Amino acid sequence: MPMNISQLEYYVAAINEGSFARAGQKLHVTTQAISKSIRDLENEFNVSLMVRDGRGVKPTSLGLIVANQARIVLEECRNLKIGMAARKEIEELRNGLSIAVCTAECRGDLFPGRFFSSLKRDNPKLRLNISYGLNEGCFELVRSGSADMALVLGDPSDAEGIIARYIAAFEPRFAVSPNHSLARKGALRLSELEEATIALPLDIRCCLLQLKNYLVAGEVKVRFESVRLTSEAHESFLNRDGVIMVLNDDPSVLPGIDRTILSQAGKSRLRFPVHLCASMKTSQALYNGFYRIMRKEMAKQGYRSTI
Questions:
Q1: How crowded is residue 125: how many other Cβ atoms within 10 Å of its Cβ?
Q2: HSE (CB half, 13 Å, CA atoms) of 85?
């Protein structure tokens, strides 16, 4: 029987593990399959490749030479698979992609327009159609097939019919009136929210529990107030020294309202997980390709990879 890639894989695994049994467990095959494969390889080369060593096995001097060459061949095979998968991803991405992005009324978009402008400049052959909706609405767009994928806040692992992969940590900001005592700071620490009145994030409810836990952990006492999802209500709330958690500092945040947007300072910062979601029917090559592009762009733009 001619030599094949599986034989080399089994042989290298047996050397690495020092045991046929452990190699079989690692590769999810039987011990007998490992043993027969190596015996066939020895017959192919007409040399002894392994010897018993107590309860395990070890390579002969010739076996070491074969193992080193086998590792090179296996690495080349892996690179070939990765390369072909990448080419398939690129071809599928060129066909166009529709992405639904989480947005919140008055609070801005999870990824503002400038993010995707930069992404498109770096990937000129990528055709994107971006739409925006509330977190739950993004799931529905994916389920219905109206969007290929969605970028959402929180943990969507229990969302029916959806696959999700963590992509980055998102750090929200806080909006205040220019007359607020915090407005001069530019950035605020957790403790500086003490006794503040914060608008309930009704349009990004998935973040509410995490926001409350964050404040409790820091022993920061605040008041929450329900604010109607209108520009007038948000402006009135800010003028009463209210604080609004927003998604970014883009002009689309609280448009037409005189406000100051503060980033977070200090080691203890509020962060939310961001996931890339898709339908179970989505091409794996398409999903993996866009995931890699997003990760690269987010790293470039300073998003954190971990919470």
A1: 8
A2: 14
Structure tokens at 278: 């898709």
Task: Report how far residue 28's alpha carbon sits from residue 24's, in angstroms, rounded to the nearest whole number.
Answer: 6
* Interior angle at CA 121, CA 115 and CA 126, nearest 5: 95
305 vs 33: which has the higher pLDDT: 33
pLDDT band at 29 (very low <50, low <70, confident <90, very high): very high
Cβ burial, residue 151 (10 Å; 0-12/13-18/19+)? buried
Phi-psi region of 10 (alpha: psi -120 to 50; beta: other; left: phi over 0): alpha
- Cβ pair 257, 132 in contact under 8 A: no
Look up residue 227 and give its two tokens: 């604010």
pTM for the full predicted model: 0.68
One-letter identity of residue 242: G
Measured CA to CA in angstroms, residue 22 lies from 34, 42, 86 at distances of 10, 20, 32
**Domains of the chain: residue spans and CATH:** 5-92 (1.10.10.10), 96-169+272-300 (3.40.190.10), 173-264 (3.40.190.10)
What separation, in Å, do the N-terminal and C-terminal C-alpha atoms of the chain show?
52
At residue 167, the 3 state secondary structure works out as: strand
**Cβ-based neighbours of 217, under 8 Å, separated by 6 or more:** none
Task: Work out the pLDDT band at 1, boundaries 50, 70, 90.
Answer: low
| Burial tier of 290 (Cβ tally within 10 Å: 0-12, 13-18, 19+) | buried
